[in-house]
Design goal:
heterodimer; A: 96 residues; alpha+beta; Arc Repressor Mutant, subunit A; 4 helices; 55% helix; elongated; B: 193 residues
Chain lengths: 96, 193
């Protein structure tokens, strides 16, 4: 039986963002942009979606004179990711 | 990647790539291991020589051993500021190092207090034990084998430290600095931990 995949996470860029944040304490927008190779506009849009769903916490501040956006995974985001990985396993098992 | 064609295999590939990426993140801990390992090692060695030759107790060498600590503090502060400017992420292990070494500092502070209160050199005798234990636990969490072995070696040194007099205990403390901090620090630098 297929488990339902979280539509918010079942997207290449959003999944990449959450997967990167899972392994880190927090990351800046610049880091996520560099690692996902996404455009700033698209990345910003996907971060907003994850933020609205409370999967990630977004903090805006300044580093010296420059504005900085810091993203951090939330407990809700962590649980959603775990659930997603568990669901995806059932698909892989059947595909094998 | 097209969102409509994104399947389970692609998902796993994305997750795997991100996990591998997170594995390569650096904490910058090697710098602090090497800096404070060297400072503490020099301090204990100087104290060892002074305890062997008491006429050196009022010398420049003794004063110099105390100057090392503010120098270490300034260098740590400069490095931290530089890291904050350049780093675009905070690795999870950074918290492990923070709590590990805060615990170490608290333990060492209590031993120093006990040493003064009981007039026994406990902080010197047990330095290999507390430094070894800290590095052993952190090494276990961060899966850094050299830290694990270095920590075990330092903890074992404390047995000899307990059985020896205070002069030799200083020497054991300086050896513990090498095995707990300097050697793991060098290997961390090489492996980009």
């Amino acid at each position: 039986m297929f488990k339902i995949l979280d539509p918010l996470l079942h997207s290449p860029l959003r999944l990449a963002i959450v997967s990167l944040l899972i392994g880190l304490e927090e990351a800046e927008f610049v880091y996520l942009k560099e690692k996902t190779k996404a455009s700033a506009g698209n990345l910003s849009l996907q971060i907003d979606k994850l933020h609205l769903a409370e999967y990630i916490k977004v903090t805006k501040g300044f580093k010296g004179k420059y504005p900085v956006t810091i993203c951090k995974i939330t407990p809700k985001g962590f649980s959603a990711f775990e659930e997603y990985v568990s669901s995806i396993k059932s698909y892989i098992h059947i595909e094998d | 990647m097209d969102e409509n064609k994104f399947n389970a295999t692609d998902s796993l590939k994305t997750i795997e790539a991100a996990i591998n990426e997170a594995k390569t993140t650096k904490t910058g801990a090697a710098f602090y291991y090497n800096l404070w390992g060297t400072i503490l090692c020099c301090y204990f060695l100087i104290q060892f020589f002074i305890s062997l030759k008491p006429n050196l107790s009022g010398s420049f060498l003794n004063s110099f051993s105390w100057i090392l600590f503010p120098i270490g503090g300034i260098l740590s502060y400069i490095n931290k500021r530089r890291d904050e400017k350049n780093e675009t992420y905070v690795p999870q292990l950074e918290k492990v190092y923070f709590f590990g070494f805060t615990g170490f500092a608290i333990m060492y502070g209590i031993f120093t207090f006990a040493s003064t209160f009981l007039s026994l050199p406990l902080s010197i005798i047990f330095f290999p034990l507390i430094s070894g234990l800290t590095v052993f636990v952190i090494g276990g969490i961060s899966k850094h084998n050299i830290s694990i072995f270095g920590g075990i070696f330092s903890m074992l040194l404390s047995i000899f430290s307990i059985l020896s007099n205070v002069e030799i205990a200083y020497l054991f403390a300086s050896i513990a600095c090498i095995t707990s901090f300097i050697i793991p620090g060098i290997t961390m630098r090489k492996s980009n931990v």
